[in-house]
Design brief:
The chain is mainly beta and about 325 residues long. About 10% of the residues lie in helices and about 45% in strands.
Length: about 325
């Protein structure tokens, strides 16, 4: 298990573009047809039942995956299985995130759930993205409309989405850095639309299954954890948990497309040196704040440029977060 960072979905994805903080704001002018196509896609991937096989690529990682999504009485269930290499599953059922691995000490490694996008993309439209239509291409033996989502402020990635013209389902996705280099992508090779029977963890008794409840941030936090965030990012969940005997809080932020998580822990150990790791579109940053008798350990993992992540960590309310963690010990 990684000592400082638990990589997941978004444990999992790091970026290469170092973009200077403080770049001038550029007004994004988006196409209404493009926004409507993105809105239709966001609704379809959450409302429809479908399954398929896809290929995922990040840096030198190339894996085959199977994805299922079902909706019964308004409740979503989604399951993503790795078909090549070591077995792994990630799923969402109602208000819980579920992970299944073949042993207790396997480094958690996630992939994007192709259907897990906000069903109401208003937040995306309010963030500094320019959204435009591209051409029409053939993907998974279907006609797909390209939607370009370009970052306009340097504090987030750009995206390309290929949307099925018949069902509005997402067939292919690319995450790009400021130089238009592909950091991460997936593409369906097969897609079947219709009711699914989704069995979490596939009945394999050797799997270690972990469940993470999704909570509302307002129930836990009564203050703003950071004095600065990139425009458009909002706190969407606060997850208290334990790592051994230590109390840990995970704060999750998103602008509707990109996301980052901040892991917070009070430790009696001496502060460690700052750390940084990059993998595909994801950055992992670690910083310890010295306290009397120990340190506040902060780890940020997410799909944002490293310099943006560093600025967020520097803007954290250390005293407020220390008090939050102290009260929960």
């Amino acid at each position: 298990r990684a000592d400082r960072v638990v990589l997941s979905r978004s444990v999992v994805w790091l970026l290469c573009a170092l973009l200077a903080f403080g770049s001038p704001h550029v007004q994004a002018i988006s196409s209404e047809p493009a926004k409507e196509k993105l809105r239709s896609m966001a609704q379809a991937v959450r409302a429809m039942s479908y399954s398929g096989k896809l290929v995922y690529q990040r840096a030198d990682v190339l894996v085959n995956l199977a994805f299922q999504h079902d909706v019964v009485n308004g409740k979503e269930t989604a399951r993503l299985r790795r078909l090549s290499g070591q077995a792994l599953e990630r799923a969402q059922s109602g208000s819980s995130l579920i992970e299944a691995t073949p042993g207790p000490n396997v480094l958690r490694q996630g992939y994007p759930l192709p259907g897990m996008i906000n069903s109401e993309p208003r937040q995306i439209f309010e963030a500094p993205y320019q959204i435009m239509l591209g051409g029409v291409e053939r993907i998974a033996d279907r006609s797909a409309q390209l939607v370009l989502v370009e970052s306009m402020d340097g504090h987030r990635h750009s995206y390309k989405f290929w949307v099925d013209e018949e069902t509005s389902l997402l067939l292919r996705s690319q995450t790009l850095n400021a130089e238009s280099q592909t950091l991460e992508q997936f593409e369906f090779s097969e897609l079947t639309v219709g009711p699914q029977s989704v069995e979490i963890a596939g009945g394999q008794e050797s799997f270690q299954v972990k469940v993470y409840p999704i909570t509302e941030p307002g129930a836990v936090l009564q203050f703003s954890p950071a004095s600065w965030l990139p425009s458009g990012y909002q706190l969407v969940s606060a997850l208290p948990s334990r790592a051994g005997s230590q109390r840990v809080y995970t704060l999750v932020y998103t602008d509707g497309l990109g996301s980052f998580s901040i892991f917070l822990e009070l430790t009696s150990a001496r502060p460690d040196a700052d750390m940084q790791a990059i993998l595909g579109p994801t950055v992992a940053l670690g910083k310890d704040y010295a306290l009397s008798g120990g340190a506040l350990r902060v780890t940020l993992v997410g799909e944002i440029p490293p310099e943006t992540g560093k600025t967020i960590i520097d803007a954290l309310d250390v005293d407020g977060l220390k008090g939050l963690l102290s009260r929960s010990q």
